[in-house]
Amino acid sequence: MKNIFSEIPESLPAELSEEIISSEHCKIERIVSKAHSTPDDYWYDQEKNEWVVVLKGKAGLIFEGSDEVVIMKTGDYVNIPAHRKHRVEWTDPDQETIWLAVHY
Questions:
Q1: Most buried one in 42, 70, 87, 104, CB count within 10 A?
Q2: Is there a contact between 81 and 55 (Cβ–Cβ < 8 Å)?
Q3: Report field, pTM of the whole predicted structure over 0.70
Q4: pLDDT recorded at residue 81
Q5: Could you report the per-residue pLDDT of 64-85, keeping only the tens digit for each?
């Protein structure tokens, strides 16, 4: 048994992404961010749908074609359809942001 809030490194020079479980049709991962963002010239363009929830912390997402930053805080979730280009504009610099992402 493991705990979603344990084994988080003291220092996070890069965002931490860990696969929890996966199959042919579904992957669940834990992502830990602290003051991380997607590079300015990059958009995620994924083959599968992604449902993501913030378990701790806060972050800002932006979708291609929109100037509005979607603010996500603890408990907030969003479903991102396959090939819906998006990026992480910012994550909380003062605490870890822990995401649970389900790719299906």
A1: 87
A2: no
A3: yes
A4: 98
A5: 999 999 999 999 999 999 999 9
The residue range of the domain holding 82 is: 16-103
pLDDT in tens, 86-101: 999 999 999 999 999 9
64 falls within a domain: yes
| Number of folded domains that form the chain | 1
Which residue, among 19, 7, 36, 8, has the nearest Cα to 103 in the 3D structure?
A: 19
Q: Band the pLDDT of 29: cuts 50, 70, 90.
A: very high
In a domain, 4, yes or no: no
- Collapse the DSSP code of 26 into the 3-class scheme (helix H, G, I; strand E, B; otherwise coil) and give the result: coil
For residue 23, give the CATH number of its domain: 2.60.120.10
Q: Distance (Å, rounded) from C-alpha 32 to C-alpha 29? A: 10
Cα gap 92→71, rounded to integer Å: 11
Q: What is the DSSP letter of 44?
A: B
